[in-house]
Design goal:
7 helices, elongated, mainly alpha, single chain
Amino acid sequence: MSRVLGYSLTLGTADAWADFATLAAVRLSERELAGIAWAAMCALPRRLSEEVARLALRGAGAPLPPFLGGMADARFWASRASPAERKAYALAAYEAMSPSDQAALFRHISELKVPG
């Protein structure tokens, strides 16, 4: 892995770093990966470490307009969205609903069975 890191540093391309990430995921333990990530994030200025973290965690961004309906597209987007994105869009969608739609949604979520 040290050679692969050297190659990635020498090439310095997005593809080289993506290849490093792929190989690191296979060859290194979670503890080793966490150590590398921690050291790299600590070495960066705060502004840049936050930007790198956002890119690495890849939120889903804004939902796309529905293609063939609504629910399948919404579920696909939600499966890729970060928790903060899901909360923000859920609240905004709820607030944009009519009072009767809000009540219907409340009844629906009240009937759901909680796992456990």
